Amino acid sequence: MVNLLSSPVRLGRGGPRSSGSMPTSKVRKRYWITFAVMLALALVFGFGLLAWDNPMPVGSQGFWIIAKMRAGTILAMIVVAACQAIATVSFQTVTNNRLITPSIMGFEALYRVVQTGAVFFLGIAGITFFTGIGQFALQVAIMVALSVALYGWLLSGKLGNIQIMLLVGIIIGTGLGSVATFMQRLLTPSEFDVLTARLFGSMTNAEMSYMPLAIPLVLVAGGYLVASSKKLNILALGQETTINLGLNHRRETMVSLFFISILMAVSTALVGPLTFLGFLVATLAYQLADTYDHRYIYPMAFLTGFVVLAGSYFIMKNIFYAQGVVGIIIEAVGGITFLIFILRKGRL
Amino acid sequence: MITLNDVHKKYSSTVAIGPVTLQIPTGGITALVGPNGAGKSTMLTMVGRLLGIDSGTIEVAGYDVATTNSKDLAKIVSILRQENHFVTRLTVRQLVGFGRYPHSKGRLTKDDEAIISRSIDFLDLGELEGRYLDELSGGQRQRAYVAMVLAQDTDTVLLDEPLNNLDMKHSVVMMSHLKRAAEELNRTIVIVLHDINFAGHYADYICAMKNGQVVEFGTPERIMNDEILTNVFETPISVIDGPKGPLAVYY
Questions:
Q1: Long-range contact list for A121-124, CB < 8 A, 24+ apart?
Q2: Measured between alpha carbons, how far is B143 from B126 in angstroms, rounded to an integer?
């Protein structure tokens, strides 16, 4: 009788056979080179945002005073990039679908309704009324509560099924979107104008006063998801394989979705809707990293997210003088980059 | 040994499985056969705890699958379903490596790597281990999945139609690999088969199901018989003496 533990192992041709996250040393090398390039790009863009168009000479006291004023935007970008990257990668993993993003689950529609509702019921004063850390916490709480209710209800029932959950999420999102559109129709032009500024995903929406709440939330939720990379690698194989390998599929899915909803809620409440960003970042990260392992996907996705955000912000601010409205550039340039990648590689 | 005691699963007022009471002995290959919709795959998924049961108990090697901790069961019984489609892009070796998860929790040791290597070699996938799954033919991919459940190193292995979509050559290769796994690695293999002749030749026991019930259980010699097969499959079948044992003719 042969035993899997005791019989001799045939040796591989090129050194020891290993089942690591990177199948060959070539793939590993390419990953770290790409990582270094993205890191360099991130640093260049980050420094560019601080230094470009800064009237004071680099290194002088005045330079740092101006840079400090701009650093808040960079902090917001770091937080948003982390939220969108980690949330989308994890969401695609637990739903076993590389074509969707968590923002379709009603987060953005809910944000629109809350913002529109504030203007609709309270007038222009509503916008100013609806600022501060209180309203930020409230918005995050409402979004998380809505999605937890949805996940909890749909995944624990007898028909517990992720496809149905997604469908219901999209329908609720569309419904909330219609409510917001209806209210917008009834606004006066000046009210509508004030509101529109809030409804474009914009880095300048981010108030520094939100950060003491946003950063710990992102650290906890993102930290949990990154720490469970190994479990997520298994969840990506689907429900049956996950159960076969001894993980509690429903519990892992629910916990992951809970933390994903926190990340999405923080990002949306902080800067507004950025529908395409998460999807773009996750897909690009998979193309760049070329591995299944979440430990390597997450850092790459985060860096990609920051580079995309900082790059679009830089272009909007210094070329189009439309400070902060990054969504437009992300969708145009990001979409084209995405198409080029897909057409070149021919797979997701 | 797998013991099913009065197992019942109800889908609607007309569709139900059971009550099934059955003992599948340790060692060898047990083939589940029967017409479409007989409940073979459902029964297999219930034994593999992928599907809950309404009443009764299922025990694998003395462990109740409903109450035993899932992560402990993953070291006792492994199950491979019919359709496997992963969104993740994996090489053969990475896939087989996932089979070690119940033991390694994702941190592969030297022993884990050695077991992965042997499982790959056992199914003749050594040359292909660096290939991505989407670069393999259907038969090779199916072998990679089986290598993964072998690497899980469980005494009991449940396979849901592993011959699905395989041509004659690959079916024969797959069955001889499984036969060797049962004999050399001392595994208990339960397998859903569509071709009664494969069951008759390779299996040590045949379990025939019909309308959610087990109607016959026994050695191939006993089951490969005109009367029993005609009754199970509800189509005239005559068993003739072939060059390699009994052969069911059904057309």
A1: A123/A191, A124/A190, A124/A191, A124/A194
A2: 12
Cβ(B180)–Cβ(B129) below 8 Å? no
Query: What ipTM does the predicted assembly reach?
Result: 0.89
Q: Does B204 touch chain A (CB under 8 A)?
A: no
Judge if B107 and B64 occupy the same domain.
no
**Could you report the per-residue pLDDT of A237-246, keeping only the tens digit for each?**
888 899 999 8
User: B105 and A240: CB-CB below 8 Å?
Assistant: no
Partner-chain contact A7 B118, CB within 8 Å: yes
Domain total for chain A? Answer: 1
Domain that holds residue B107: 83-153
Q: CA–CA separation, B17 vs B103, rounded Å?
A: 33
Q: Which of A316-325, A336-345, B55-64, B190-199 has the lowest mean pLDDT?
A: A316-325
Do both B149 and B203 map to the same domain?
no
Q: Are residues B101 and B143 in the same domain?
A: yes
Q: Sort out which chain A residues have CB atoms less than 8 A from B114's CB and list them.
A: 5, 9
Same structural domain for residues B111 and B190?
no
Same domain? B231 vs B127: no
Please write the tens of the pLDDT for every residue from A125-170.
777 766 778 888 888 888 888 888 877 777 766 656 777 877 888 8
Q: Let me know if residue A291 belongs to a domain.
A: no
User: Which domain range does residue A118 map to?
Assistant: 71-273
* Minimum distance, in Å, between the CA of residue A145 and any CA atom of chain B: 29
Inspect the interface and report whether the beta carbons of A245 and B153 lie closer than 8 Å: no
Q: Taking each helix axis from N to C terminus, what angle separates A294-318 and A211-227, rounded to the nearest 10 degrees? A: 150
CATH number of domain containing A242: 1.10.3470.10
DSSP-derived secondary structure for B172-234: HHHHHHHHHHHHHS--EEEEE-S-HHHHHHH-SEEEEEETTEEEEEE-HHHHSSHHHHHHHHT
Element (H, E) at A219: helix A211-227
B166 and B180 in one domain?
A: yes
Contacts 24+ apart (CB under 8 A), B243-251: B244/B201, B245/B200, B245/B201, B245/B220, B246/B200, B246/B220, B246/B221, B247/B197, B247/B200, B248/B196, B248/B197, B248/B200, B248/B224, B250/B196
Q: Which residue has the tokens 């991505």?
A: B132
Measured CA to CA, the distance from residue A138 to residue A131 in angstroms comes to: 11
Average pLDDT of the residues in B117-132: 86
Within this chain, do residues B175 and B65 fall inside the same structural domain, yes or no? yes
Residue B240 sits in the same domain as residue B145: no
Instruction: Please indicate whether, in this complex, the C-beta atoms of A245 and B74 are within 8 angstroms of each other.
Output: yes
Domain boundary among B116, B138, B153: B153
The verdict on a CB contact (< 8 Å) between A97 and B87 is yes
The pair of structure tokens assigned to B200 is 């008759």
Domain boundary among B153, B177, B194: B153
Residues of chain A with Cβ-Cβ distance to B150 below 8 Å are 4
Cα A151–Cα A178–Cα A174 angle in degrees, nearest 5? 35
